[in-house]
């Protein structure tokens, strides 16, 4: 049996110099939010540990997460990462197809039982025994249950598999569910986003293989390094927010000058992601930088909180009214009821007085 | 001053009772100021209606000031509320814990009777303790207090996320996943604000009415501490039971 190559051997074979390798390690250490003393640990891990195989499964999703991952244009990240994580199965980019491809998966999983990592893109339909999504003759539900048996960890890539995105949006006709609701006996990492940032996906995977543990997760199972802070708190337009200078309409003077997009429904203040720090496409830009409000794509139920160009607090509750309308209705209701009660009380007292006076007059 | 004593002053035409001690009065007016500032700044943060006439963001700090004020008065409101919660148990003879026995049937009988009494426009004076609060009022204030607590939890949870892992985040960070994301936390914060506004409308118009038309000293008692009853007024024990007979 062939001994598995380490990451370092692989990159050297592919003609990448040690200098570039170290640079990659340093960058990765920084992306993971680790202190610089951990640099040597990252290097040692990538030099000595065999590359754990990763199986990338596509279920009910639009493949935008794959697009995001393969378009990460850091030369080191895109080339090296794809070989680094030993991506043994990924429908979108693999050469094999049909029976051949399916054979690779199940044989590989058997061989690496207990050691491989599953990266799942897309949620899993559960209604009618999950017939709405089938891969290789199996429903996605059967597939994920079978594949997860020998997995070391599962990475839910994208909002679909983390929280449920378009696929689980109301009325959810196929009964789609995010992965963590289906697989409960394996460690699951959620990397929400529609799609998530390539460096975030990669960073999480690198953390997993470097330290053999999950990165520190928050209550929604997201890596704290990337999802610990609001987009708003690191936004470069924050100065305009603090000053009170807002874009009122998409084509006004403020929009041209790059003011804060809070009033056109930017959800940066309630969205936890690394967009304003890591940015997209080699750190070129992110939605707010290009003048578009944040849609909050990495938050739970983001697709149900339509219309997207409004704050969730201003979005009507299903078939009802907005929080403000309900609140105003309540306040007005209280005011009317109180007013009516008070007027009635005053009238009653006045009429009583008149009656008493009449009585007194009669007695006189 | 001893806690369980009733202080009474009789003038020519009315009897006055010393009901609200200085702690209650001071904390009440701190609440008035804090809630006023919180609602105003909260409205601004939710929908910024004023824009400074500046071309560049330096120098102007309208939103930042509003947020800081909101946070500052939230802290004041919370500390005041915590102390007031302690006074719920430790105040004078009209302290509300004294009557907040929700496990007793009498509590609910009184509340129900009082509700009917209000709706039929009678405003009956009965037991001595109702100089402070009858049980219906106590119940209302406890609900308002709980609503304010939810405001505190949700508000500090959102504020704490500025510094993840910091003091406020450690204490209140769990609130955000509880409601499924910060967006929902904001919505709840907003809705409860409206609930508190509704309470305020009722509260303010009623104390003015009772002060002006019923001469019970409801409004002025928050300044003087004295509530008024007619001369020669005698407390009635458990009026809801007598009616049934």
Automatic annotation (TrEMBL), chain A:
Q: Where does [4Fe-4S] cluster 1 bind?
A: 62, 65, 160, 194
Annotated transmembrane regions: 21-39
- Which parts of the chain are coiled coil? none
Keyword list (alphabetical) reads:
3Fe-4S, 4Fe-4S, Cell membrane, Iron, Iron-sulfur, Membrane, Metal-binding, Oxidoreductase, Signal, Transmembrane, Transmembrane helix
Q: Which GO terms describe its cellular component?
A: [Ni-Fe] hydrogenase complex; ferredoxin hydrogenase complex; plasma membrane
Needed cofactors: [4Fe-4S] cluster
Choose any GO biological process term that the UniProt entry carries and state it.
anaerobic respiration
InterPro entries cross-referenced by the UniProt entry: Cytochrome-c3_hydrogenase_C (IPR027394), NADH_UbQ_OxRdtase-like_20kDa (IPR006137), NiFe-Hase_small_C_sf (IPR037148), NiFe_Hase_small_N_sf (IPR037024), NiFe_hydrogenase_ssu (IPR001821), TAT_signal (IPR006311)
- One Pfam family name is NiFe_hyd_SSU_C
Which molecular-function annotations from GO does this UniProt entry contain?
3 iron, 4 sulfur cluster binding; 4 iron, 4 sulfur cluster binding; electron transfer activity; ferredoxin hydrogenase activity; metal ion binding
Location in or out of the cell: Cell membrane
The Cytochrome-c3 hydrogenase C-terminal domain sits at: 227-307
Chain residues that bind [3Fe-4S] cluster = 275, 294, 297
Question: Where, in this chain's numbering, is [4Fe-4S] cluster 2 bound?
Answer: 232, 235, 260, 266
Domain (NADH:ubiquinone oxidoreductase-like 20kDa subunit) ranges: 62-208
The record's annotation in NCBIfam families points to: hydA (TIGR00391)
Q: How does it assemble?
A: Heterodimer of a large and a small subunit.
Q: Which PANTHER family match?
A: HYDROGENASE-1 SMALL CHAIN (PTHR30013:SF6), NIFE / NIFESE HYDROGENASE SMALL SUBUNIT FAMILY MEMBER (PTHR30013)
Instruction: Name the protein family.
Output: Belongs to the [NiFe]/[NiFeSe] hydrogenase small subunit family.
Under what name is this protein listed?
Answer: Hydrogenase small subunit
Organism, by scientific name, is Candidatus Chryseopegocella kryptomonas
Q: What is the lineage of its organism?
A: Bacteria, Pseudomonadati, Candidatus Kryptoniota, Candidatus Chryseopegocella
From TrEMBL, chain B:
Q: PANTHER family from the xrefs?
A: NI/FE-HYDROGENASE 1 B-TYPE CYTOCHROME SUBUNIT, NI_FE-HYDROGENASE 1 B-TYPE CYTOCHROME SUBUNIT-RELATED
Record keywords: Cell membrane, Electron transport, Heme, Iron, Membrane, Metal-binding, Transmembrane, Transmembrane helix, Transport
Query: Where is the protein situated, by its record's location annotation?
Result: Cell membrane
Pfam families, alphabetized: Ni_hydr_CYTB
* CC terms in the record's Gene Ontology section: plasma membrane
GO terms, biological process: respiratory electron transport chain
Which taxonomic lineage does the organism of this UniProt entry have?
Bacteria, Pseudomonadati, Candidatus Kryptoniota, Candidatus Chryseopegocella
The membrane-spanning stretches of this chain are 29-50, 71-89, 138-159, 191-212
Task: Mention one GO molecular function.
Answer: iron ion binding
- Indicate the family of this protein: Belongs to the HupC/HyaC/HydC family.
Q: Which organism is it from?
A: Candidatus Chryseopegocella kryptomonas
Q: Specify the protein's topology with respect to the membrane.
A: Multi-pass membrane protein
Q: What is this protein called?
A: Ni/Fe-hydrogenase 1 B-type cytochrome subunit
Q: Which residues form the Cytochrome b561 bacterial/Ni-hydrogenase domain?
A: 19-225
